[in-house]
Amino acid sequence: MEAEFMACVDTEKRDASAANHTATHLLDYALKQVLGDHVEQKGSYVSPDTLRFDFAHFEKVSDEQLREVERIVNSMIREDIHQQEYRDTPIEEAKQLGAIALFGEKYGDKVRVIQFGPSVEFCGGMHTTSTGRIGMFKILSEASVAAGIRRIEASTGKNWEERCYVMEDSLKDIKALFNNAKDLHAVIEKFLSENAELKKQVEAFKAQQVERMKTALIAKAQHESDGTTIINTVLSIDAAAAKDLVFKIREAVPEKLICVIGAEAQGKPSLNIMLSDDMVAAGLNAGKLVREAAKLIKGGGGGQPHFAQAGGKDAEGLHEACEKVLELVRQAM
How far apart are the first and last CA of the chain? Predict the structure, then answer.
């Protein structure tokens, strides 16, 4: 059975891939100019939307160096350097042209060489007819991918144009949040400063709140006949404040202390147990107690013999969890 079909090339995607491929050649050249001749290509990947280039280098490339690399590549793009192609060129003749070979690659007696001005490389891939067809080059990221191997990801042409529009729109949205301030940097700096000051005030208020709670809880504490102080309660505070609170209580009641505080903030429960050293010496262990009681708040935790903390998912079980701790204490004593 015979059938007719037609194959079509998506020229827009092909041109975008060619632009990214040519850009890797210019990038390779620019990296050698900025970082040194030790730079060696270790791999690359190009598609219509992607440009990735791996190279040998011994340290992170600084922002200043990346900017200089971009300047060199974009300068070569603006020069609109036309492609020079050498097909079926004897390999020795290609080397005399200054063509760069990929490390570990095997080549035949004759090779193809692609040249864009000072950039000369062995290459069998598709390229733009001139560097100007790339449009523009922008590095998006630089990072380590292996020992001694760095990776640059970049964007060119229409893809970078679209990214510019996204950034422009984002900047407009941010300006709108600050009443379209002309000096956005100064306004944001002011807001950050004010936010930092407010955080300090909130922390100071929390510290005062914890201090008041400590005093109130000690005043209402249960005192056993043997002199043991028992504090057992559930409070609407976060886990960090609860931890601070039990340590302050321990400072105020250094001996014969059993302190159990359930805390809940924004639906997140925590169980906090603090014991004085003599209680630990008597055989109690806060870590073991909290692991058992935390089951009642559908959570888990641990800690040291004198202090332990657990988080959970069920705040409704806090009261029962606190009572469970005291039950376990009575059984152990």
Answer: 91
Going by their DSSP bridges, the two strands 41-46 and 51-56 should be labelled as antiparallel
* Cα dihedral: 285, 291, 292, 293 (round 10): 100
Question: Averaged over 262-287, what is the pLDDT?
Answer: 92
Cα–Cα distance between 69 and 72 in angstroms, integer? 5
Contact assessment for residue 211 and residue 248, using Cβ atoms and an 8 Å cutoff = yes
Put simply, whether the predicted model's pTM sits higher than 0.85 gets the answer no
Measured CA to CA, the distance from residue 250 to residue 261 in angstroms comes to 13
Is residue 154 a contact partner of residue 27, using CB atoms and an 8 Å limit? yes
Residue 333: the pLDDT is 74
pLDDT in tens, 88-105: 888 878 777 777 666 556
- The residue among 314, 239, 247, 298 whose CA lies nearest residue 271 is 239
Q: Answer yes or no: are the C-beta atoms of 150 and 143 closer than 8 Å.
A: yes
* One-character DSSP codes across 296-310: GGT-EEEE-SSEEEE
